[in-house]
Amino acid sequence: FADIPNGLAAISEVPSTGWLQIIAWGAYCETSQDQSPGTAGAAGDFGWKVLTADDPEGKTKKLAAEIANGRLAMMAIIGMFFQDGLTGSAWGDWANYTDSPLRAFETELGVQAPVGFWDPAGLSADGNATTFARRRQTELKHGRIAMLATIGYITPEVLGKWPGYLSPSLQLKFADIPNGLAAISEVPSTGWLQIIAWGAYC
């Protein structure tokens, strides 16, 4: 057992007969219980009562905890696989992954602790500096728009509306425009054209 490395490196070291035993045991666990609809197996009860409870309330609480912990474990094992694949260890330091093309952007503006260079979708994995610069410019623009939109969403709720008319020709006052998404259908089409034209100009 001491000869088998931890993590993904173990895959190539375990003998083929060992993998056959693992697969056979998994198949046995799946097929040895009746899991048809309405059975205890369909509800996840396979007769292992070590950690269960006798009263229904306690059993429900423990099952809910099992589901929550199971979801966390599924996320954790995927993260450990990913980390292992990049650094050679589930506990590997990012500093060990020296071959990553993402290293090219670690000193760029916007790389901040604690996540460092944040690119979970791998959009910059090719290391293309031109594409990275264009995306960073786009991020700046979208961020500025989002900040303005956030202020625009909050301000009417806190400070109220502008006095006067949004559209004098339609006798539409600022006070008549609801807050939030409900305003979309109330702003006249010419108003939307002005907003779009201003955005295009910027």
In words, what does this structure look like?
- There is one protein chain.
- The chain is mainly alpha-helical.
- Helix content is 46%, strand content 2%.
- It is built from four helices and two strands; from the N terminus they run αααββα.
- The protein has helices at residues 16-31, 56-87, 129-159, 189-201; strands at 165-167, 172-173.
- Strand 1 (165-167) and strand 2 form a beta hairpin.
- The longest helix has 32 residues, at 56-87.
- It starts with 15 loop residues before the first helix and ends with a helix.
Strand order of the largest sheet: 1-2
What is the overall silhouette?
Answer: flat
What portion of residues is helical? 40-55%
Low-confidence segments: none
Main beta sheet strand tally, sense and closure: 2 strands, antiparallel
Can you write the helix and strand succession as a string? Answer: HHHEEH
Beginning-to-end CA distance, first to last residue: 65 Å
Instruction: Note the beta-strand portion.
Output: under 5%
Number of helices: 4
Number of strands: 2
Mean pLDDT: 84
The structure class reads mainly alpha
Cα gyration radius (Å) = 29 Å
